[in-house]
């Protein structure tokens, strides 16, 4: 499974609260990736970067 972090200021990082969500193949239902779920604070940090 592919883990997808956030990209803030050119650096990969997890969401500040550690939350993620899963992306599934729509045909098989198989989980194919786990993606960092950005918070408002993560978005603010990305804009400031």
TrEMBL record:
Question: Known SUPFAM superfamilies for this protein?
Answer: ALDH-like (SSF53720)
- What is the official name of this protein in its record? Vanillin dehydrogenase
Matching InterPro entries? Ald_DH/histidinol_DH, Ald_DH_N
- Write out the GO MF terms: oxidoreductase activity
Keyword Ribosomal protein, does the record have it? no
Q: Which organism is it from?
A: Pseudomonas syringae pv. actinidiae ICMP 18807
Keywords, in A-Z order: Oxidoreductase
